[in-house]
Amino acid sequence: MSPGELVREALRAELPAAVKLRRQLHAQPSLSGKEGPTLERVLDALPGGLVEYVAGTGAVIRIGGPGPAVGVRGELDALPIAERTNVRWAATNGAMHACGHDVHLAAVIALARAVSKVRAAVDEGVDSPERTDSWSWDAVAPLVVVLQPREETYPSGAFDVVESGVLDRHQVRAMIGAHVQPVLASGVVSCTPGAVNASADEFELIVRGAEGHAAYPHLARDPVVAMSQIIVAAQQLVSRSADPMVPTVVTFGMVNAGTAPNAIPREAVARGTLRTMSEPWRRGLHDRFTQVAEDVARAHGCHGEVRVLLGEPVLANDEALAIQSGDLLRHRGWTVTEELRSCGADDFAAYASVMPALMMFVGVDTGAGLHSADFLPREDAVAATAEALLAGYLTAGSRPALAE
Q1: Contact at 8 Å (CB) between 201 and 311?
Q2: What is the model's pLDDT at position 241?
Q3: Which residue ranges does the record assign to the Peptidase M20 dimerisation domain (predicted)?
Q4: Top-level CATH class of 199-312?
Q5: Most Cβ neighbours (<10 Å): which of 15, 55, 135, 258?
Q6: Using the 8-state DSSP alphabet, how is residue 210 labeled?
């Protein structure tokens, strides 16, 4: 029996406990930056191993001996959403795992326990009687479990993990992640090579004018009118400044101005997001947005000021990891697509920017979208996500480049 088959068999045995853990995590979610209770529950479910705390409320656990390793990421945080699912194990504290992090964590723990169990059996010489003398763990790397905080907020937990140097110390050579995705049917996994998620940067735009009475606009400089024209003009960046073959999004999510209906305010403030699937165009988008905002404000006798808060870069999957993991999943009977891309964002891109990485999307039937108060993947999503992570782990661990 091959190492992969042994781990897969052990993984199946871990799934009932993983489903139970998923329910516990779902019932008691923790918001970004306050993941301590969730971290402790997950650590209690893990097998023994060296634990290093990182990024404030996160941790890294190594399973296996020395040498180059494969990392798997599980997100610890929940969203500030009041749950409406009405299941017995629904959250009641005003937070909710409305993005599937409870499923991801349970799947990661199932994989970690399976790898640990098989390694222990092999070390004790009680593995499958089909094992040959040439069979060894050299074909599969040690596993490094990254329990990451603050996936849903800035500053991003993934960047803190990378900057801490813990992945370098553990010789992590590839990172694997999986995310449940309700736009895909159950039984379908996306292993898309190349860019799969957009860069996502936030902006704050302040337009300052001259306040005055609403009945005498000619004596004022109206920042609200200037802001409205900037909002319209900024949409032309997508159709007239971006390459038509490069997805680009400019969205104003917040606009605030004034305190009275009969007064022209001194300033208007807007916040929103700038997204693109092209890392080279990302900075160009920032520059063009800033130029448009400043010039349109000036044309209305106002002053425009733009601040851009850098977020996630473009998330690009390693081509070989994506193709080979997809082939392995097909061999196991899964339907695999290579076409899922979106202008959503994930700080998993921090790992992909420094090493080969693979983010897979696992189809779930929920009847509700991500970040919805009704979002609740079925329990078989834990098994599907664990299978996807296993495929990525085995593929990355067997690559010759891992030993370089």
Answers
A1: yes
A2: 96
A3: 202-297
A4: alpha beta
A5: 55
A6: B
Biggest CA–CA distance in the chain, Å, is 91
Confidence at residue 133, expressed as pLDDT on a 0 to 100 scale: 41
**Cα separations in angstroms, 341 against 165, 190, 193, 198, 360:** 30, 9, 10, 9, 11
Cβ contacts of residue 134 below 8 Å, gap of 6+? none
SS3 115: helix
Task: List phi, psi (to 5°) of 107.
Answer: -70, -40
Q: What is the pLDDT of residue 400?
A: 60
3-195+315-403: CATH topology: Aminopeptidase (3.40.630)
* Residue at 99: amino acid letter: C
> So what's the pLDDT on residue 399?
66
Q: How many helices (H) and strands (E) does the chain have?
A: 10, 16
- Whole-model pTM? 0.91
Distance of CA 396 to the CA centre of its chain: 19
Residue ranges, the chain, pLDDT below 50: 127, 129, 131-137, 401
Backbone φ and ψ for 151, nearest 5 degrees, come out as -75, -30
Contact 185, 84 (CB under 8 A): no
**3-class secondary structure, 351:** helix
The letter for the amino acid at 206 is I
- The full set of domain ranges for the chain reads 3-195+315-403, 199-312
Token output for 356: 């080969």
